[in-house]
Fold each of these.
Amino acid sequence: SKTSKLAYCIKGTFVHSTDSSPMEILQDHIMGVNSNGKIEFFENARKQVELAKKWRFSESDIRELGSHEFCMPGMVDTHIHASQYSFSGTALDLSLLDWLDKYTFPTERKYKEAEFAKTIYSSIVRRTLRNGTTTACYFATIYTDSSLLLAEIANNYGQRAFVGKVCMDINNCAANYKETTDESIAETERFIKEFLERKYCRVKPIITPRFAVSCSEELLQELGELAKIHGTHIQSHISEAVGEVESVKTLFPNYKHYTDVYDKSKLLTDKTVMAHGCYLSDEELAIFRERGAAISHCPNSNISLCSGHLDVRKVLKHKVKIGLGTDVAGGYCSSMLDAIRRAIDTSKVLYIQYELGQKIDCSFLHTGSSHSNQQTMPTSKTFSIQKEKYTALSYKEAFRLATLGGSQALNIDDVTGNFQIGKEFDAILVSPCVPGGPFDVFADDTFEDVVQKFLNLGDDRNIKGVYVAGQQVVPLPNA
Ligand code: GUN
Ligand code: ZN
């Protein structure tokens, strides 16, 4: 609207996703950001004179990007454990349940100490921002006060975030890291109350049952009620690993499946994001779709803990919302660029299994009847009648998952996720050609090549600036 003043303009190349295209590259465009941090206009630069007149800006108000530089939406990490950052890059030699007992619970206990929490939480917020994560959906620990501290730190650094105080009342006696059912509920209520009193603009509380293995039926149901009363977001884990799925079957024998456990507790809403989902059935995905609940795909973690692979194609086919997560520290890398790469890798592994594996299997069916085909490798086309051809994720699709997909998964796509007019300007300014940088750009590279090189090879050296709601948060003003 005309009531907000124009703050600045950016001119150059913009790369983003829309509902109809996983990646649009818009060269020679001009974008106006208003004093509320929202995108006021976004047009071809040939309209500059007209726009300058209407919005009263001059050449000196325009920040012009270099020839290979581009602006892309900030990335959305839909699942990250801020408290596990202290041991990220280590402790990846066990599978999920043993890993939790041996490394994770003992580490999270340390967050009772505010000073310890402050150090690690400041580091992870700074690092994710520097790597272009403008929105993060965090797990903290069971400790309310240090979880509130994480919210304060994210707010101070200007990151958009959801922060959850973790709830867990069963099955973790070994590490002496748990709470009673009553404590968990009362502390979650206090967490939400004190959180909301602080009136942060872009940092919000999220109800966080750790996962069904760590939560009693009563706790799950009470948390579902609290989410309903306060209208809060919800996050947890689901169907990440085989041992976990088996535990849930044993612990909750009266439920149809894992998804049913959360669903009956009213924990599956259109503000819910569940991490992993590697072993969800079609029936379970249909319930996700019905409730509007989302999945956070955390490929680094799935591989690092040997949990399994999520079939993104299957999730997309069910029209279930999906974003990417780093899942620090089950995932060892806090950069969403890594999540993009691992998501593509995982998808290619599934392609190898489904398409090339299918070839071998099917060829056995055909060798009996005809020997004339023996010298020809059967192509997957030969068997296309049996199954639709599987295609691996393209880098463009992975880019969408990391940006627009994540914002949809967190139900904030009305505010962020791409460069639609009226959304807040959450963006990264990418400089592919930096001295001593991680890759080279050559004369005959197309702009698509440059973007693809950044996604596959780039790092924070290429990230010249990060903006959240129009405010520059990287480079940090006081760093
Ligand atoms: N399931 C329950 N807790 C956790 C956790 O901290 N990390 C992962 N990856 N899975 C979990
Ligand atoms: Zn996790």
Amino acid sequence: MKKAKVILVGNSHVGKTCLLCQFLDSSFQLEFQTTIAPDKSIKQLNLLNTDITLEIWDTAGQDNYAAANKIYMKKADIALIVYDITDKESFENLQNWYDRVIQINDKNKVIFGVAANKSDLFEKQVVNTEEGKKFSDSIDALFFETSAKDHGSVNKTFTGLAEKFIQQLIEKNKTKEENKENEKLEKNQEEEKNNENIILDQKTHNEKGKNTKIKKKC
Ligand code: GTP
């Protein structure tokens, strides 16, 4: 069973908790209750023929919890950075959230996703999709348009990120196996070469012996 730590980050009110609730139990809450202490949720999935457990941490978007967030953001495998398409400031702060994540994680080891949330409120949209995609590309992230009211879009986001995680694991294992195979091949080739040298040495030795005998006879 594979395991991945997922963190949800982004400004307060962008919909992190709602996305998580929709993913976990297909529910949506309209009342807003800010996250104070990050909380861990577990979801088990089977993707690409692989059993995987997602350990999802919903962090607090309010700045006064930044220090506490740091602890929970460590050792992340997947980071979903969320903004609200009706809130420009939440979009402008994406870089800041990304920087916070890579400050305490190896950026090459984290799979990033950007969620343009509240897509159901398109009539109030102030950040267009292209801007969102552009930012997402700049940090090499997967881009998703989500509505916490729509299970399909939310499910696609979490499973898309988890599948990328699994694919990377498969690639890493493949490379490890290939390296092992190459090492084995090199070792075999070296042994074969050594054996050839021994045979050659013996042949030369025998030839020398013959020559010596002939010389003696003369
Ligand atoms: P913090 O816990 O303070 O970091 O906020 P958060 O990012 O977890 O936001 P939360 O999920 O609590 O949602 C904030 C408000 O936005 C709530 O009133 C939700 O009902 C609303 N909301 C969240 N997602 C959506 C969405 O996709 N569409 C609409 N229309 N409203 C949403």
